[in-house]
Specification:
The complex is a heterotrimer. Chain A starts with a strand and ends in a 7-residue tail after the last helix. The longest helix of chain A is centred in the first third of the chain and has 15 residues. By secondary structure, chain A is α/β, with parallel strands linked by helices. Chain A folds into two domains: 180 residues, 3-Layer(aba) Sandwich (Rossmann fold), CATH 3.40.50; 128 residues, Rossmann fold (3-Layer(aba) Sandwich). Chain B folds into two domains: 93 residues, RNA polymerase II/Efflux pump adaptor protein, barrel-sandwich hybrid domain (OB fold (Dihydrolipoamide Acetyltransferase, E2P), Beta Barrel); 151 residues, Chloramphenicol Acetyltransferase. In chain B, the strands form three sheets. In chain B, strands 9-14-13-12-10-11 form a six-stranded mixed sheet. In chain B, strands 1-8-6-3 form a four-stranded antiparallel sheet, with no helix packed on it. The radius of gyration of chain B is 44 Å and the shape is rod-shaped. The relative contact order of chain B is 0.10. Chain C is globular, with a radius of gyration of 19 Å. By secondary structure, chain C is of the alpha/beta class. Chain C is built from twelve helices and seven strands. In chain C, the strands form two sheets. Chain C has a five-stranded parallel sheet with strand order 1-2-3-7-6, sandwiched between helices. Chain C has one domain: Rossmann fold. Classes of the chains: A alpha/beta, B alpha+beta, C alpha/beta. The interface between A and C is large, with 47 and 49 residues.
Amino acid sequence: MRQITLSTAVNEAIAEEMRRDETIFLIGEDVAEAGTPFKITSGLVEEFGTDRVIDTPIAEPGFMGIAVGAAMTGSRPIVDLMFGDFIFLIMDQLCNQAAKTHYMSGGKLNVPLVLRTNMGATRRSAAQHSQSLHAIVAHIPGLKIAMPSSAFEAKGLLKTAIRDNNPVVIFEDKLMYQDKADVPEGELLIPFGVANVKREGSDITLVGTSSMVQVAEKAAEILAAEGISAEVIDPRTIVPLDMDTINASVRKTSRCIVIDEGHQSFGVTSEIASRLMEESFYHLDGPVIRMGAMDVPIPFSPALEDITVPTPEGVAANARKLMAGEMFNG
Amino acid sequence: MADVIMPALGMAQDTGKLVQWMKAPGDAISTGDVLFEVETDKSVMEVEAQADGFLTQVSASDGEDVPVGQVIAVISATAENPVAAPAPPPVAQAVTEVVAAPTPTAPAPDAVTTGGRILASPKARRLAAQEGLDLGQLAATGAPMPYHVSDLATLREMPAAAGQTVVMAATKQIMARCQRSGSRDFMEWMQADGAITVTTSAMFASFASGAFRAATETPTVVVQVADPDGTDIFLRNPDFTRLSAPVSETDEDATFVLHDLSDSFLTSLRLGDTALPTLSLGSDGDSYLITFEFSSEHMDDAQGIAFVSGLARRLADPLHHLV
Amino acid sequence: MTDAKTNTEDYLRMYRQMVRIRSFEDQANQLYLSAKMPGLTHMYSGEEAVAVGICEALKVTDKITSTHRGHGHCVAKGADFKQMFCELLGKEEGYCRGKGGSMHIADQSNGNLGANAIVGGSMGIATGSALSAKRLGRDDVTVCFFGDGATAQGLLYEVMNMAALWSLPVIYACENNGYSEYTRTDEIAAGSIVGRAEAFGIEAFKVDGQDVLAVNDLAQTLVARCRKGEGPFFIELETYRYHGHHVGDINREYYRPKDEEKEWHTNRDPITNFAKWLTAEGIVDQAELDTIQTEIKTDAASAVAYALDAKYPDVSEVDMHVFAETP
């Protein structure tokens, strides 16, 4: 199968869906001729014109609000938010308007929009361009959250998101835009709420999101060499969350580490660990370990930034501790 | 005619305090006149009349807390009936939800009453409970906590503690009958010939111990002689001791339990409780009845049969045993 | 219907709609004060000519976005009393099955995209609705109602900028009732209100919001120009809210003098003044107007009675409509 970058996969998904459905348009800062700073949407304006690939002023709340109104009235906008950190600017439009409209209207109004944005540290961008803020919006009922872990997922999840009748937020890891993966040409739809077992194992379950799936896979390689068999699970969407697959795996292995690049406290790792505690408690042979970004603003200095996010070595070390039955923090 | 109501002015407000009436019953009222003051959310507000007329049927007094929505007066076209008949039960209270007081419950007994808490994973605890294993036994050995599933393997190797509930394999029974005359003659002979008093229980323990050893090749046999009225006696290898000498007692775990029913109305015990192999010996006329309960965890069937057969032979012909 | 209102039928319809709003609000006020209505609510009484003058210039397919003080817009855009009162009381038959309440009534069937409890929260939605109409080749116009207080929100300037850049068919209708919650507007708004829109090159107008004919004439013109692609537009409507910021705000002399309230009630009431004009012009006589008033009041009272008796949604609906179905 051909290999394409995650960036190309996103571009391809948007183009395919825009060809299929006239009501779809793309809106955001520098999405047209500039193709965004990451060059993800390059070429789209040439095919679809400025009527459907709409450059906006630097006014995130404004174009987000416009997208919500357009979605309520027959359009299916794809909003490009240049950095995930800017999600704080659009919180009212996303969380008070888009997320609640269907419910507040008793099911009369729909908001079928996709908000594409990014996440991920270690790009030396410092505290306001490096955050992974998916847990904050996952907290709000009415929003679906997808986190592609490769070019394959990026295409399949985005196409599914565009066809969903709800507001969907997609967090792409900006460090993975040039990563290549096998991606089929043409139609590729990945259903929401269906986790992917990336690697089977019997001793410990590693649940990873987005780029942390790669971290988990590398950790599994390290552990395999030591005779520890790790299972790696990619939930693909955190809302909805496929707990069935995660529970089944943990009931088999009895041990689990959850890895996510959001800050560790009050985040995705905490949520999954809590649900495992509630739903698979009597199958756990050790505590569920959370591994998120450190609870510090992301620092600029490479010497500091690199230690704020989970690494394969760190995951493997915690896995060894779990296998040995050692206590954590006690 | 217009009702004067205690208005709901704040969010989540249930009652309003009528600070004071600014008009008296019977007063002429114009729309916009301040009728009374009400205190809500720590602020006092003036409530204006919504109609022209006379203030009548005043049913709330200064300083009173009134449910919001309740009618507290009427502005009527005439000044008749300025004071209300006894106030009707407040309507707003009718919808107040009655929340049942929580049923007092006895304080839960402290789950950890036996000294130190045992640290173990939820899965290890669950499997231990399912298999009837006692994590406390592991703790008693000083094995480092917390325990995980892998530690259960060690626990499975350890002998079950006394009094521990063990999930049982199926109980098997073997019964036999033999003449009492041989034993009776033997005891009389011992008494007459050697002035040795042999008790039935001592004889039973000795013969059973010997038969058990022969059938199972067990090096050390501890017989737990059950005493329904007192403390069970644990006898170590009673068949190694002459019947005339006292048998050494022991605190070792029993190999099997012996119930001597010969001096009772009971003939046989089949209680199905085979934590240990259990032997009961009853008398029935000129016969002894031998009942033996055991499970496959104790011995195989051939061993059980050999044991009971050997015991019956010994009881029928004690001299044979002594030889 | 949207041709010039030069016949009796159209005048009476505007009169009727204003009376309907006033009657609705009187009932809502009583429901709230008598503790029969949960939550809180904001009265539109006094501002009827704004909603009616504008909405009478719109088609059913045209869209509006509304505010926390939204009952008037909802009635003016064609909503039904029963479903509105049911919504105010949280009943199953309400427009939003009781999930929205006073501040979130949406009436999709009449193009009402919903009231919004965030001040200024719907400006993006209205502008997006106009973008949809333009992109998808519909001739819909969207009117964004908001108050003078909302002009302080930054979102307005972001979306007016884009609406002007992209020539969107949207009319920003600023209901200037003189007060931003509990504060005089001149204390929170520097400079000119219309000047804010003019800065983006948007044609802006100021009109007497108590004069339903003046409002309607202007709205007719601007809606027609929007359909021709000449939008966006901005209107500042000078008006007055008779009640406080919300129903419980009854002692308000610290920010608003009673004399001022009396002046608007007595001399600038939109319904009274329109009735005077209708009778003076000989279009209808007072008896006919009285009949209309009585009919509508009866209508409102029976809708309230119906809503009070209507059933609450089943508790099983609590987690329904969190997400829309996707076929």
